[in-house]
Request: fold
Amino acid sequence: MSSALPDRVDVARQVQARRTFQGSLPLATMHRLRGSLASDAGEARYVLEFGKDSLGISWLDLKVEAGLPLVCQRTLETFVHPVSIDQRMGLIADESGEAALPPGYEPLLVPEGELGLADVIEDELILALPVVPLKPGAPLEWKDPSDDVSEVEPTSPFAVLGTLKKH
Reply:
């Protein structure tokens, strides 16, 4: 088991050695994810394990736990969105290999046989972001302030014609 996360790894070597990487990555180092966060404080804890199943399919098990600071779109308050990822990815060299993956495997394209592990973690965290961040306990309905004004009976634009007819 290794705690250091190299920039790039040779996938075939990692699978053959059944290599495991464990540790944490600061959110501040994830440049693509950072733009969606309220702040870059915090870290993502990960466990990455390479292996091969009985069908000969190479895989990467990815487990990531993180608290992502987001801005609630209802209250505009910052809150921490907990993310827990547990994913088995089938390592494929080209897109045609996706059809051969058994159920439960997500395809992970590795065209040159090398993989940036930090990029895989960041990609999965980006995919875990909610489309519309909502703080737990935020009101579900938006109330229009103009609804509080007492309603005045609307007058018909043809009411004037009624007064002309009486004359």
The helical segments are 11-17, 31-34, 117-128, 159-166.
